[in-house]
Write a structure and sequence with these properties.
Number of helices: 3
CATH superfamily: START domain
CATH class: Alpha Beta
Structural class: alpha+beta
Protein name: Carbon monoxide dehydrogenase subunit G
Largest sheet: 8 strands, antiparallel
Shape: globular
Radius of gyration: 14 Å
Helix content: 25-40%
CATH topology: Alpha-D-Glucose-1,6-Bisphosphate, Chain A, domain 4
CATH architecture: 2-Layer Sandwich
Length: about 130
Amino acid sequence: MNLESPKVNVAKSAEYLFNALNDVKNFEKLMPENIAKFEVIDENCFEFGLKGMPEIKLVKKGGTPNSQIVLGAASSKLPFTLTGNLNAIDADNTEVQLAFEGDFNPMMAMMIKGPITKFIETLAQNMGKL
């Protein structure tokens, strides 16, 4: 299952956004208002929970400086990645798009497609808060 957020223009440099996203504690600023839990486990991992959804632990999997950051599920039970693609428009503006890629059975994919789509759209819209 592959989902993408709309592209969002953020009035920050690609370098600034990459560094902000590389610090996992900053993801708390991007979370939807219905967040029930946010906990930094270490410099590469955080756990969050939204009301009515199971808690999810994300770990940094890698990235390319100033252009991409990749997070993935800490558990192999629900394998997925969340990739932030940064495209510098100019020195002070960056286009950001989030991509979710997961390997789920059709029933699970059908159940989570709506909530995940809304979630990544909210994360993208909140990039300006960094």
